[in-house]
Every structure is written in C-alpha cells, then in structure tokens.
Amino acid sequence: MPSRGRAIALAIFVTFLWSTSWILIKVGLQREELEPLSFAGLRYALAALILLPLGWPALRRARPWAGRRLMLRAAVLGLLLYAVAQGAQFAALDVLPAATVSLVLSSTPVAVALLSRRHGTEGATRLQALGIGVLLAGVLLYFGRAAVPMGAVLGVGIAVVGMLATAVGAQMGRTLARDAMDRFGGAVALTGVTMAIGATVRLASGVALEGIPRLSVTGWLICGWLAIVNTAFAFTIWNHTMRRLTAIQSSVLNTAMLVQIAILASVFLGETLDVRQILGLGLALCGVLLVQLAPTLRASAGRAGRAIRPARR
Going by C-beta distance under 8 Å and a sequence separation of 6 or more, which residues neighbour residue 115? Predict the structure, then answer.
C-alpha cells in the first residue's frame, strides 16, 4: 500500500493524465466527428481488454465470482463509473462547452461530502467544508458568466447525472477497494472487472443508439492512447490511491483537473485566460490544498493543544 504522501503524488499525476483526456475527447468529438456514447464505450472496452488478461491469473486464484454480493457490488460500481458517469461526460461535452461541463462536475466533492456524512463515514470536517466552499467560489469566479446555450438544458441534466454517478462511485469505489482487493487478486483485476462490465453496457447501448463507430487512423490513435495510458494505466493507479486517501480527498484532487484543463486548453487549443479567470484558478487551488491538508492541520492542532495543557494533579 502506498504511503499517504506517495498516494497524493500519484493521484495528482493521474488527474493530469485525465485532464489531457478532455483535450483528446474534444478533438475526437469535433474534428473526428465521433459519436459520444460509442466513443466512450470503445475507449473503456479497449482498456478492459488490456487489463483483464493481466489480471486473469489473480482472478482465477481469488475466484471473486464465488461471492455473489461481492460481484454485484463490482457490477454496480462498473455501471456507475463507466457506463453512466463517463457516458454522461462524453454526451455532455458533445452538446455543451467544456467550461459548463467542468463547472457542473466541480460540485462532485460536495456530493461526496454529503454522502459521507449521510452514511456516517468520513464526514467532512469544518475545515474541509470551508475548503470545499473556497474551491467552489474559485470555480464560479473562474467561469464567471458561463451561460448555457439555448436548447442545452438537457445537456446540463446529463452532466448532473454524471456528477452524481461519480460521487456515488467514489464512495463505493474506496470501500470496495479496501474491503475486496484481496478477493479480486489486486487492483488490476478489480479495475478490469468493473471496467469490463461498465464498458460492455456503454458500448452496446452506444452502438444501438448511434450505430457502429467508424474511425479514421487519427480516431484510432486517440482511442488507443485514451484506453492504454489515460484509462488502463491511470485507473489502476487511482484504485491504489483510494486505499490511502479518503473519498473527499480523492474527489477534490480530481476536481483540481479544472486548473489543469484550463492550462492545457490554453496551450493546445489556443484558449486564453483573463485576470478574473487566473484569480479563480488560484482560489480553486487554495480550496484544494485546504481540503487536502485539513486532516494534517487538525492533527497538528490537537497535538499542540495536548502539549500545552497543564497536567492534572
């Protein structure tokens, strides 16, 4: 199991890879004219085909399918994260500006915090709640008057569905990774199983609604990179980090992609940032750091308080 510091570093690296995915997805949707649902399904189906053979020896020894409730939890997680959440993200990006979709998805940490408090696990501390508030304020300042185009109300609803599925999946994913990693024989096998289930449903429904996808060489290169590097490799690392980080911390680090996406969009898509947007990015970063450092700050304050407390006589 990675140390907490190493888990944070790995999570940040994974968020960078996922941030590059947004650029590639927009290229695939706009320039290659790929259909969103089948595009998402193809990406994760290819990744699952890579992960399952690697994890098969461990799966065969562990025999997770012997536990029906365990496999049901894995199936639900796969449907949430890959069929629903990722399908909704691709579909929303197809009809809405990336800024609007990112703004909706940035509220994921709030949903995770509310779910954690509702279930009595990992409830957000006051300092973490303050950090989430600062983060959201920075997001709102950065995007300013990000107007939803007329007729795109359905797209916002799709993005909200994706956000909620991501929040529930983050809560379930950490519990499953902690409780059932050994039963699946490791992170690769666990990721492969959940991804295969979700991707199969997403690809099948995409083909049924949009037809069989036809990709150019560039389209295949985009799907291949997204599947091998930004999905199979990145999600395996992410599963490892969830064993050390709380659901709130993981979700807020994921939200830091807003900053990375803006920078990448500026470099590769020619999008410029004004002063207000730069200030918003800085404020959002402060919120991310506040949430991430809250447990450490609270523990340090507790130790300091005990150190200066007079001894009882």
Answer: 167, 168, 171, 247
